[in-house]
């Protein structure tokens, strides 16, 4: 069985996302069943806990990625989507430094143009770090990528 490093997987996932972004969906097509549309993306909350890489791989299986956040409205929307399912736990978003320690990038390859770090974050040393968002006012926090949390996947939709 082949084995991939987290960095190699992330590189493939980003390149796959860029390729998928070039594909065009019908502008009037609704999101797939079970997904919620917000602007040009479809989102789905998954309550089962997975590691960051397992959650990302699950999202990639839908031709998406863990959700990226580019403004305050998206940040609020994701928290609302998560709370709507009655879940107040932290959840994975697609931000990590698995490619290069200390360099935060979104798993979908988009630019980090918005930040919502909790006070004192990002913090942590050693190993790969991934980001959770909280619904209890703590916003983004760094967590060990091997820990398990629920997650939100995002699909680009036009």
From TrEMBL:
Domain C-type lectin: 38-154
Signal peptide start-end: 1-21
SMART domains: CLECT
Gene3D superfamilies for the chain: Mannose-Binding Protein A, subunit A (3.10.100.10)
InterPro entries: C-type_lectin-like, C-type_lectin-like/link_sf, C-type_lectin/snaclec_domain, CTDL_fold
Alphabetized CDD domains for the sequence: CLECT (cd00037)
UniProtKB keywords: Signal
SUPFAM superfamilies reported in the protein's UniProt record: C-type lectin-like
Family annotation (PANTHER family): MANNOSE, PHOSPHOLIPASE, LECTIN RECEPTOR RELATED
Protein name (database record): C-type lectin domain-containing protein
């Amino acid at each position: 069985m082949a084995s991939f490093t987290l960095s190699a997987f992330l590189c493939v996932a980003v390149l796959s996302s860029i390729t998928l972004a070039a594909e065009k969906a019908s502008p009037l097509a609704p999101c797939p069943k079970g997904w919620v549309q917000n602007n040009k993306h479809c989102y789905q909350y998954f309550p089962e806990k997975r590691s960051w890489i397992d959650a990302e791989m699950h999202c990639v299986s839908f031709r998406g990625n863990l959700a990226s956040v580019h403004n305050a409205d998206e940040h609020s929307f994701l928290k609302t989507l998560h709370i709507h399912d009655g879940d107040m736990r932290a959840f994975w978003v697609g931000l990590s430094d698995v490619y290069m320690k200390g360099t935060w990038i979104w798993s979908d390859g988009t630019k980090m143009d918005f930040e919502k770090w909790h006070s004192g974050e990002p913090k942590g040393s050693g190993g790969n770090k991934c980001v959770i968002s909280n619904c209890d006012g703590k916003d983004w926090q760094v967590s060990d990528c091997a820990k398990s949390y629920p997650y939100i996947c995002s699909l680009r939709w036009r």
